[in-house]
Amino acid sequence: MTLFHSYFIQCFSRLKRVPVSPRGQFRLGLLLLVLLPAWAMQVSAFELKGLKWHRAEAEFYVALTGTSATGISWNSAFIAALNEWNAKTPFNFILREEARDPCQLDGVNGVDFRPDLCGTEFGSKTLAVTFIRRTAPQLLGEPNIVESDIVVNQAEAFNVYDGRLVQFGIQGLDFRRIALHELGHVLGLDHETSKAAIMSPSIGNIDRLQADDIAGVEALYGGLANCTIMNLNYGLFSGALDANDCTVQELTAGSSDTSFIDIYRFDLFSETAIEFNMTSSALDSVLILADTDLQFLGFDDKSSNTCNSSLSQTLPPGSYFLLANTYDVPVKEECGNQGNYQISASFSSSGPTALGASTSLTGAESNAGFRAGITGDKGLSYGNQFKPNDSLDISAEITIDPQHQGQAGFLFVAALVGEQILFLNPQGQFVDSTASPTSITSSTVKFLSSIEQIEIATALVPAALDIQNIVVDFYVGYGLISNTNEAYYHQTPLNLTIAP
User: Fold this and answer.
1) 284 lies in which domain range?
2) Domain total in the chain
3) Mean pLDDT, rounded, for 304-329
């Protein structure tokens, strides 16, 4: 996590770099670049500034009038360029065929031909200019783009055609490849000077997106692919931030933040209150909550005067990330930016929780589903942290894979306490697996229905068993009598944490 962000803006012009003096609404304190087309083909890989749209998506308003000498309208040529970015990259331009003035700071993205650069003269040989007009600061990485507009110099001679830039009998520069280039700046690409690309700083014979252009968009909007995403388990778990981890720079693409980050995913199927506490004696801890589009929902970067962090929030159903982060330059002198940490994770919801994706002993795919819950108030609420004197009911539900329904099978419940594995036996008691470490003890043998209900415990009072502190992770699953070497269960355990 960095303490400051830099803000940038970008645009486009013709044979050489031309300085543009923004005026009026353009005075945003952002860097304004002018692009160049004498697009001579030059050869590093794609260049990124880090600015990007949230969710790799933006509405764009297009209603250009007029037709080229080859009979193709300016509007259809621009839309064809927009559709090429949609078809070949993960970015999605949402087309709105309505006119919008690109010189108005109005919160929408538009394009039009104009005699001047919104009140300022076009630079020499300037074909078009792309303004990134508004941005929104982000907790991690560079700001998100909010508005970007394209102004095309109507004094230039344009046409619409494919192939070589200079052709016998065809006058004017191809407008479609200019639109393709400008839209690349809209979605966040800079000029590419070392490989063949539509984002080359000078116009030439390239008239379609190249591999480098596509790779640039994939890098800009595919930062999550650079990082390992782990399943979040409720209860207490340990981790470390070090050179083996992803960095914010890799996650956000284009940022200068080199701090390490761990990413944990969790799914909620009902409105749920969650609480996370990150403790460390070595890290300047930062906890961040985000949705899977990396829209940041909350964060905490301090806990009193310690290196710890805590975060709590109530969330609607959906999929989320918990990000364990630190500063690239620690803020607290006593805390560092590499080292071990522990996270305690708890939740409270109105119903049982889903237990993650299905898996099996052999890694076979399955369409089984798993839900479970622990309640201390007869089903009014469910959670994972309880007191020793609470009376607990623990239950689970398995949706059996359709291909296994009706077959002879067995159900099982496993409880992990530290390194010990216990199985629920047919008498309702948990027995140590040490005597038979390679086999599963089943709780029930039966023909499998479409949905199987399992009562793990009823009116369980930990204190009555002399339990004051314990952490248990439950797994439920099933198997087939025809193949006792295989069993189907869930990736995320059902956690029970008992503490005074």
Assistant:
1) 227-349
2) 3
3) 90
